[in-house]
């Protein structure tokens, strides 16, 4: 009987991936806090969860190659743009920048804590699998 990592790990792998992508987006916002006309963006967890549920349900589409000379679309992921949303500013800026550094730093810190929690859960799942394989 083989081990299915998808069943053993559950959503923890996707949660860790989401937290890493969100950290990148939040860091980009923080680095552009003084850029005129920059619009703050963030990932919406519910959209990511809905996209993941749709993928597991088999409702996703695939590209078809009609000619052998067509290039395969590897790594094509249209869900990234659909889950990346613009943030509504709490206080308008004169230069049209929507980044609030304090909110971004707070969100980044919370995301780091959530990332560590997801990593710890994933690590404990792997330790459990190793214990099961060794028969301890």
TrEMBL record:
Residues 12-39 form the Flagellar basal body rod protein N-terminal domain. InterPro entries: Flag_bb_rod_N, Flagellar_basal_body_rod_CS, FlgB. Keywords: Bacterial flagellum, Cell projection, Cilium, Flagellum. Its main location: other. It comes from the Bacteria. PROSITE patterns: FLAGELLA_BB_ROD. It is found in: Bacterial flagellum basal body. Coiled coil: none annotated. PANTHER family: FLAGELLAR BASAL BODY ROD PROTEIN FLGB, FLAGELLAR PROTEIN. Structural component of flagellum, the bacterial motility apparatus. Part of the rod structure of flagellar basal body. Belongs to the flagella basal body rod proteins family. The basal body constitutes a major portion of the flagellar organelle and consists of a number of rings mounted on a central rod. This is Flagellar basal body rod protein FlgB. It comes from Pseudomonas typographi. The lineage of its organism: Bacteria, Pseudomonadati, Pseudomonadota, Gammaproteobacteria, Pseudomonadales. The gene is flgB.
